[in-house]
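Hi everyone,

Forwarding the result from last night's run.
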Amino acid sequence: MRRILVFAKTPYQKTPYDRWLEGTGIEPVVLTTDGYAEEYRRHLRHVHAFADYDTNQLVEKAALRLAREFGVEAVFARAEADVLRAARLRELLGLPGQWTASALAFRDKVVMKDHLAGGPVGLPEYRQVESAYTVLEFVEQHGYPVVVKPVSESGSLGAAVIRDETDLDAYLAAPWPGTSMVESFVEGQMYHIDGLVAGGEVVFVQPFRYVNDCLSFRSNDWVASLTLEAGNPVHERLVEATLAVVDRLPTPENTAFHCELWITPDDRLVFCEIASRTGGGMIATTLNHARGIDIDREWLYAECGLAVTPAAAGLRPFAGMCIPPLNGVLEYLPEDGEPDCVHERVLHGASGQTFHGGVKSGLFLAGYAVAGSSEEDVVTNMARVHTWFAETAKWRPLGSEEGAR
């Protein structure tokens, strides 16, 4: 029996590794969070669970022991929190796949931009923050607005847009505790491009437009990823720029990628960031509906040396819509009855649960895969879904009596 080690920071329903690998002669050995372990154990023999999974270094200790014990042939990790720990393990054991230098280039936003500086895709001005003086000097040189953000978080966690002296003082009074970078603010429409590299070749790529933006969760507003049709005027520009980025970085032989780019009001294309993983939120689900590809499964196959199935040639217009929680107690979360444009729902909450608003762009209370006859029709349908959800879900304020609205 061949075995692969899997860092599984996803629920079983999203990543059923036993079903994906059925009939291949490959058995997964899974490390996961306490919250997901029970469901994995119903289907798999080797499941190891951890509290505080992201920061618990017993995960690494167990991974090294299990990799040696089972003689694993490969390591698979689809979550941002696992990119570096998986790369270091591969490198330590001499296993194929992404090693540390590559992982850092896709995870540390300063290292990433250093690789891309002087290349064909434009960059904002940027610097790593060494102290408060770095930010002050950067503002003096480049003016407002600027963005300060962690170098290695995802989902816009910890990002601060600083537009004036008041914003600057608020940030400096409570800065992000880890390593950060500062860069010039880019005005424009943001897009993301998701794809798959297998055997050293880009075998799949699909551009999306963000509807609302990655910081919408800060105001408890929804964000969505809308597929772009091949005839969209910016489709090919986005694909070509992403391929140039992938080519310039130390890209592993097999990886999914999630790239973010802006197109500015004066029609410049500017790089934001790229990750060597699948996109979060509803992106993988949307790709399945729009292009008929389960990108996580195909990436797993590539890591295992199995044949990858190409995506369908055509595109069905779709969007993945993520609705964050509000501040309050959730009294009723609708589990059916959506408008007929919804093809799949993903819920991450239950009645009686207390929430304190949005946390990051990829985390949501309700996610919907929304279809339409065109890009414009999908946008219209998403507005219908949001209206339906806002009118149907029931909340009460924190500290109020049960049954209040």
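The chain has a mean pLDDT of 93.

Cheers,
N.
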